[in-house]
Sequence to fold (232 residues):
Amino acid sequence: MSIHDLVADDQPDKFAFSSENEALIKKIIAKYPEGKQASAVMPLLDLAQRQHDNWIPMSAIELIAERLDMAKIRVLEVASFYTMYNLKPVGKYFFQLCGTTPCMLRGSDDLSRCVKDKLNISSGEITPDGKFSILEVECLGACVNAPIVQVNDDFYEDLDYDSMASLIDSFAEDLPPPIGSVKSRSGSQAVTGPTSLTKLTEKQNVVKSSGKLKKEPNSLSEHVRNKVHASG
Ligand code: FES
Fold:
């Protein structure tokens, strides 16, 4: 694939970080030793992407290069290497479908087929209304609950053709379902329930039911927002 396939043809003339993000950038750069500010390239790309409808225009690449005293090509190399960065527009609901061996053996091809049947798009494509896009990616690091789809920041696990179809229907109505295993597995626990450390699990359930456990965020986005808020 050439860089021209990865980068959007239509580019905005300019990009500027919001004042809120400028304040965050100062804090991020200050975490690295003097002269090592290039290490901040990944968080800055992430900020640019979140600010700009989930994709990074070339003007943002140039601005980040200038800000971190890096060659533009080095920033572009990072942004084009990781599938977590988008260099062209993606759908409001961006599906990253893992096609690596464990997910493939557990039915990721059925999930691709479901997306094709319901939305008529394949990897790298976006629906005409801009609501959905899909990209086949490499291992998302949640193989124990394969097959996995990441939608924006969140993981949906243990999917099959039918549950993938319901997932798409929920997002079509702008009603994101609860994240995690669609079979309601707790973490990567066996489908039949815990087979070891059962006493520990009972203890956790008691703490949970007594309400002493901190409320879990509903989504990774909420978790990230809470963290940023706490560190601010
Ligand atoms: S192989 Fe799909 S999450 Fe690892």
